[in-house]
Specification:
mainly beta, Porin, 16-stranded antiparallel β-barrel, 2 helices, 17 strands, about 50% strand, globular, Porin_Neis, transmembrane beta strand, cell outer membrane, porin activity, transmembrane
Length: about 375
């Protein structure tokens, strides 16, 4: 077992021991998920063959708590760590580490956490239905490869704002839908079905006048939910560079067993002296549940990119033939309330000038993928505790 895995295991055991005496003063919950599957990838062309992998799919263990401070005010905390059951790797607090206050005004949190855009992921985002796909599919959902810190030749480099995402690594990639460090997040109370949230991640170092900002408004009543989100990365990729996302998502439970959802997104990246890079995309998803059985079907479209991308700084492809599509068909069988077997078929159809890969496995510029139809077949088991 690796040093990181030993450190994580030791930290988890220590926290479980410490949680017992705290429980009498505040409500502390230990929770988690183990989700492992086998995935076969094919369609990469002559000489590339197929590959079968055993993958971890967002397995985690977490601790969250709430302490009543009186007069309707409460202190809250959350420490959630991701780990890989297939390899034993993991890091403490890698998914969230936050502390805050909650009351009639709503809630405020400080720390490392997801932004409000991720809330829309639960309405219609890739991976929501079936446990296999990575979030932020490259170019299909909020572009998982924006702001990868490249120099004018496209080589990995650094900027003064590498700390915005809580990671100083030069290759850190800024998805709009992501976890951000050095953050403050506010969620309003729900009033007549309406709510709002805003999140700010600070550059926190001298020479960085940058920030990552995400805000949403949402309406939910009975069987319907609608949310609008705007994200801005200001000066994160470099001076005078503003990267923006606007997304609208909606879902409706037609019956207690049938759910329909969809989203539309518009992306824009500054490119001084050249044309701004733009792309629109959308997705549609449906879920039918009958007893222990759940069947899911989704379609996600990455539109044709417009503008210039020199050097490559995102996962969007431009020009004729750059539009691409993904179809997902999934099935889940509930063995109990906490354990399920799942399977999924995913078909990616690249345009003649697009090189997207399944699961966000590569940024723009991938070799040998233009026009390829890539397929993934997966099956696994998930247990929540």
């Amino acid at each position: 077992m690796s040093f990181k895995a030993n450190a994580l295991a030791g930290s988890v055991i220590a926290m479980i021991v410490l949680a017992s005496p705290v429980h009498a003063q505040s409500n502390v919950t230990v929770y988690g998920r183990l989700n492992v599957g086998l995935v076969n990838y094919s369609g990469y062309g002559q000489g590339r063959g197929a590959a079968t992998q055993e993958n971890n799919l967002s397995s985690r263990i977490g601790f969250k708590g709430r302490e009543d401070l009186g007069d309707g005010l409460a202190a809250t905390f959350m420490l959630e760590s991701g780990f890989s059951p297939d390899t034993g790797a993991g890091a403490l607090g890698s998914r969230e580490s936050s502390v805050g206050l909650q009351g009639s005004f709503g809630s405020v949190k400080l720390g490392y956490m997801l932004n409000p855009l991720d809330d829309l992921h639960g309405i219609a985002g890739p991976g929501y239905q079936s446990s296999m796909m990575n979030d932020n599919l490259n170019g299909f959902w909020a572009n998982g490869y924006s702001n990868t810190f490249t120099d004018t030749s496209g080589n990995a480099g650094s900027t003064a704002c590498t700390q915005v995402a809580g990671n100083g690594g030069a290759t850190n990639s800024f998805a709009f839908d992501s976890r951000f460090g050095n953050s403050i997040r506010y969620d309003s109370p729900v009033i007549n079905g309406f709510s709002a949230a805003t999140h700010l991640s600070l550059g926190e170092v001298t020479g960085c006048n940058g920030m990552a900002w995400s805000s949403k408004v949402q309406y939910q009543r009975d069987a319907a939910i609608v949310a609008l989100d705007y994200d801005l990365h200001h000066n994160v990729r470099g001076t005078a560079l503003n990267d923006q996302l606007l997304m609208l998502a909606a879902g409706y439970s037609v019956t207690p067993s049938l759910y329909l959802g969809g989203y539309f997104q518009a992306l824009k990246y500054s490119n001084p002296g050249l044309r701004d890079l733009r792309q629109n995309g959308f997705g549609l998803t449906a879920r039918k549940k009958e007893g222990q059985h759940t069947l899911e079907l989704s379609w996600y479209h990455a539109g044709q990119g417009h503008g210039d991308q020199t050097p490559v700084f995102s996962g969007i492809y431009v020009g004729n033939g750059s539009a691409s599509n993904i179809i997902m068909l999934g099935y889940r069988y509930a063995l109990s309330k906490r354990t399920e077997l799942w399977s999924q078929l995913v078909q990616l159809r690249n345009g003649s000038n697009a090189k997207y890969d399944i699961g966000g496995a590569g940024s723009a510029g991938g070799n040998g993928l233009a026009g390829r139809n890539i397929r993934a077949v997966a099956a696994g088991i998930k247990h929540d505790f």
